[in-house]
Design goal:
By secondary structure, the protein is mainly alpha-helical. 74% of the residues lie in helices and 4% in strands. The protein has 15 helices and three strands. The chain has a three-stranded antiparallel sheet. A hairpin with a 2-residue loop joins strand 2 and strand 3. Its main location: membrane. InterPro entries: ABC_BtuC-like, ABC_TroCD, WH_DNA-bd_sf. Keywords: Cell membrane, Membrane, Transmembrane, Transmembrane helix, Transport. It is a multi-pass membrane protein.
Amino acid sequence: MLALLADSTIRTVALGAALLGISSGVLGCFAVLRRQSLLGDTLAHAALPGVCLGFLIAGSRDLGSIMLGALATGAAAALAVLLLTRTSRLKTDAALGIALSLFFALGVVLLTFIQGRGNSAQGGLDSFLFGQAAAMLRSDLWIMGAITAAALALVAIFWKEFKLASFDPGFAASLGLPVLALEAAMTAMVALAVVVGLQMVGVVLMTAMIIAPATAARQWTRSLGAMVVLSALFGTLAGVTGAVISAASRGLSTGPLIVLAISAIVFLSLLAAPGRGLAWAALRHWRNRRNLESQQVLATLYRMAAEHGDRRHPVELGTLDTFHGTPTRRALSRLERQGLVRPVRHEPERTPHWELTPQGLAQARRLLTDTGGDRDGEEMS
């Protein structure tokens, strides 16, 4: 890997991917927390007409002009969504869908128009659909770095306001904060993240970089600060990994590899994140089921002893199995290790019998009292 990074072209692409990971990771957190995942998709597709307009104005594939155009049309799409939701009965998801379709269709028309003009300068312009990291220049890194720095500075300055508006906009409004302006600023930040990723992954795949790092980070923490940091780290890791794999393998595009890398991080986070991952949920379910089985067996022993008026009344293993309709030996073994039951002999019978210990009696009584099931054993000695 270090040998690959020694190459200046690969190093440029890797640094660009790292900048993309940082910007999309940090800024995407606010879109995820505001439940506006489709917003990233809309703004990414809305950037295409801006790419074309930037090219038409500059007359060449100047990245600065293209990014400014993408930012302008992205902001226009966000404004259109805001107007549709504020002035009509359309829900946010419908407004986002309308803006996405309209602006992307306009971008495809403009792209077709440019390609039909026969201008040699437009060569590779369609690469902004899926990204073309290999065409990145060192001068492009300065533009991407400046946009990333501006976005991060905006987050740092308005951190408390963005945090409050994301979690409780009603309370933020009651404090006199300009919630609408804050929401517009957070939407503009998502547009900035899209602009940074145009050259690297393109408008089609950019939505994954907005949503995936934040989604993965959300599985590992409940703190917004930690989530933002983790999201930036995950985005950077995916970006550099995709860039290095693309450099080591011929014919593999960098953008899709970056998206695949962050998708793998999301999958691992959903599976293994402590407390929230699917594996932990399955383990918790298994433990709860096992505890419930043990509690049911303990309650059965208590009730049977209560019916005989003797806490030391032994209950035959087969009787317990028949009562529960399933083998109970494992549950009894767990209860025995906890000191709640013990095996006893019940002559003249030779089959295994079990009885409650004093600790088991107290535990069963507490269990049934909490559930309102202790009626017969209140006077049991």
